[in-house]
Amino acid sequence: MNKLKQRWGIDSNFQLTIIFIVFAITGSASAWLSKPFCFWLGITKEDLGYWFTPIRLILIFPIYQVLLVLIGFLFGQFKFFWSFEKKMLKRMGLGFLFND
């Protein structure tokens, strides 16, 4: 845990616990929200067959990104999750979205 705290620039175990809680809530919430979102878009397993799961995962990704920052903000960890988000998107080749 100390290596993770050092890598993320975190001082306390409490802050690390809060960050883990935010990741857990965000993952569960984005998976939960993807079902009504797919329904709203008219995407069903019957129509897409084996393609349903990959398409649903692709749809979960932007939902997860937004929720991560939002839930991080609600738990008082906006600064950490905003920098985490920017770093991740830059690694994915989407760094042009941010003016640093």
Radius of gyration from the CA trace? 16 Å
**Main structural class:** mainly alpha
How far the N terminus sits from the C terminus, by CA atoms, comes to 30 Å
- Into how many domains do the coordinates divide? 1
Describe this structure in words.
The protein is mostly helical. It has one domain. The protein is 77% helix and 0% strand. The chain has 5 helices and no strands. α2 crosses α4. The longest helix has 29 residues. It comes from Flavobacterium psychrolimnae. This is Diacylglyceryl transferase. InterPro entries: DUF6787. Pfam families: DUF6787.
Comma- or semicolon-separated keywords:
100 residues, 5 helices, elongated, transferase activity, membrane, transferase
Question: What secondary-structure arrangement, pairings included, does this model have?
Answer:
Blueprint: H1 2-8, H2 13-41, H3 45-48, H4 52-74, H5 78-91
Helix pairs in contact: 2-4, 4-5
Short summary of the structure?
With 100 residues, this protein is mainly alpha-helical. The chain is built from five helices and no strands.
